[in-house]
Amino acid sequence: MKNAKTPLLGYALLGLIHLKPQSGYELRKTFTDTAMGNYSDSPGAIYPALKRLERDADVMSEVQEAGGLRRRRVYRISESGMAKLKAWLREPVAPEDVRRGADELLLRFSFMERVLGATACVEFLRNFASALPPYIEHLESFLAANSTVMPLSARLALENGIRGYRSMHEWSQYALQCFLELEGNQPQQRRTKVRQKGRPS
Amino acid sequence: MKNAKTPLLGYALLGLIHLKPQSGYELRKTFTDTAMGNYSDSPGAIYPALKRLERDADVMSEVQEAGGLRRRRVYRISESGMAKLKAWLREPVAPEDVRRGADELLLRFSFMERVLGATACVEFLRNFASALPPYIEHLESFLAANSTVMPLSARLALENGIRGYRSMHEWSQYALQCFLELEGNQPQQRRTKVRQKGRPS
DNA sequence: GTTGGCATGTAATTGGTTACATGATTGG
DNA sequence: CCAATCATGTAACCAATTACATGCCAAC
Q1: What per-residue string of b and e applies to B99-125 under the rule 16 or more CB within 10 Å gives b?
Q2: A159: chain B residues, CB-CB within 8 Å
Q3: Are strands A72-77 and A59-64 parallel, antiparallel or unpaired?
Q4: Measured from the CB, is A48 under 7 Å from any atom of strand D?
Q5: Which of A1, A127, B45, B197 has fewest C-beta within 10 Å?
Q6: What count of CB pairs under 8 Å joins A to B?
Q7: How far is the CA of A5 from the C1' of D11 (A)?
């Protein structure tokens, strides 16, 4: 029943386009320049992915004939794109996402504040923080059980993984602190602009 | 001319089979159970990958009709498989491998001791350790330059990445220590398993 | 007058995901 | 007998990699 999963790249693009309308080239540069380096960065991945998003009506594009340079096709997000983005960001923190390296979770988190607001971030961080220890313990007990029969380098590689997860756990506490302070300092302020959506006051 | 790159999964399988001849099912369980969770674990990926390895003569298989259970096809590595594994493990530590998350580097490292010996591990760790700081600094300067215009959650996600790389750097120092101690304690010993060669069956 | 950065695309190949199929054995 | 575990596989679909093609502009 795992239906129609838009691939991660699609969501990454959707999230970035949501932040501000952009061209394929800009998006590509974001991937190469920033820490999102794990994503494709190659035109053969990005342009087709944008086409798919447009085909599914999650984004719309417009060619800008702006001064001098070659025309650029600028994408902006649509209603249905927003809806998909929100649905994706609202998915629960699954243990298997943690096991798979937490890449997707971090990607989701990076877009979360703008799309869902600070309270959603806080909840996410709490779930993330509590999903980590069980997995860390699992890895540690595996290490304890097998360390004598594993080659040193394999053991160390596993230890590196454990350290990485511990670092994530510490980070999640720190991040939670940051958000709680933010909320504490601006208690009256609306954290997102989604208010006008539903209820009158 | 980046030719014929065996996909990572292929190398992961090759490395595991090198450790000991195994069946597809065992390999699959290793992926699900251990920290190598980032790799497929699905039969639709593993069995075809094994077939490819066999087609390329990097592994050979034999059906074992062992007691009671369904027959299992056990794979063992071939000469050419060993050669490919070694060549892969000997590849230099490329900065782009670091940028991509260092997954592949860690996978290589975990097999390295058995295949290339401790000295190769030491060299690898030195290269790895010195490849990290430039990238960490790059991320930090990006953060410094953009932190004011980034949403809090995006900034925190980036900080998580930086922490992860710092953790890897500390780990690499620690791992280096471990290997240097090992070499110090066994100075006469060949670190590659020379004697395993002439093993009396 | 050619290099290099901006900017968009396409085609062939290949590999992974998903879902399904099969079949033997053990235990409740 | 049914479910679970061991164990291997196949087929349809789709996305990513690689490599190539194009074209404009600025600067050296």
Answers
A1: bebbbbbbbbbbbbbbbbbbebbbbbb
A2: 171, 175
A3: antiparallel
A4: yes
A5: A1
A6: 124
A7: 20
User: Which residues of chain B between 54 and 113 are close to nucleic strand D, CB under 7 A?
Assistant: 69-74
Judge whether A8 and A49 are in contact, CB under 8 Å.
no
pLDDT at B194: 47
Residue A59 pLDDT: 97
Residue A158 reports pLDDT greater than 90: yes
Question: Model confidence over B32-72: pLDDT tens digits?
Answer: 888 776 777 799 999 999 999 999 999 999 998 766 667 89
State the best of B2, B85, B156, B159 to mutate against chain A, taking most chain A CBs within 10 Å: B156
Picking from B200, B67, B149, B35, the residue whose alpha carbon sits closest to that of residue A150 is B35
Measure CB to CB from residue B100 to each of A38, A118, A163 and give the nearest one: A38
Helix ranges (H only) for B76-117 are: 79-90, 95-99, 103-116
Average pLDDT over residues A11-25: 96
Tell me the shortest Cα–Cα distance from B65 to chain A, in angstroms: 28
Tokens of A133: 């220890």
Q: Look-up: residue for tokens 């580097």?
A: B105
Query: Which portions of chain B are predicted below pLDDT 50?
Result: 1-3, 191, 193-201
Q: Is B109's CB within 8 Å of A153's CB?
A: yes
